[in-house]
Specification:
InterPro entries: HotDog_dom_sf (IPR029069), MaoC-like_dom (IPR002539), MCH/BMMD (IPR052342). This is MaoC family dehydratase. Pfam families: MaoC_dehydratas. By secondary structure, the protein is of the alpha+beta class. The chain has a single domain, classed as Hotdog Thioesterase (Thiol Ester Dehydrase, Chain A, Roll). Helices cover 20% and strands 37% of the residues. Strands 1, 2, 3, 4, 5 and 6 form a six-stranded antiparallel β-sheet that branches. The longest helix is centred in the N-terminal third of the chain and has 11 residues. It starts with 13 loop residues before the first strand and ends in a 5-residue tail after the last strand.
Amino acid sequence: MFTKFLEQYQIGESWLSKGRTITEADLVMFSAFSGDWFPLHTDKEYASRTLFKQRIAHGMLVLSAATGLFQFEPGVVVAFYGMEHVRFTNPTFIGDTIHLEVKIIDNQEKDNGRGVITALQEIKKQTGETVVVATIKLMVNKSPNH
């Protein structure tokens, strides 16, 4: 998705990523890395007594895993610029397969041959349910010929 120079993006253009299945190992490794051992993510018995009836993936794990589904082109993408309006709208369970649906909603030229692309990001699972929605921003270069 983020493989083109600034002036090549059109408002409304969209992209669909490949999928990635969230595993129990993902939850364990994310807990170890982040220090977030909240029982809703790590304790099967505790989670069985919640409204979800089972363990759910950390919201930040889902966001992090989704980052790996983007396509970034070195020399085009300068940096991740920010994220706004993040909402975790449905649970992601062990065994769910997530994918990204991304739509360009803004394209702003900045200075020094760069600009910011703004996109609506929806992370969805195999059921079609949206599990995370956010507005993301990436700083990208303009074409060297522009």
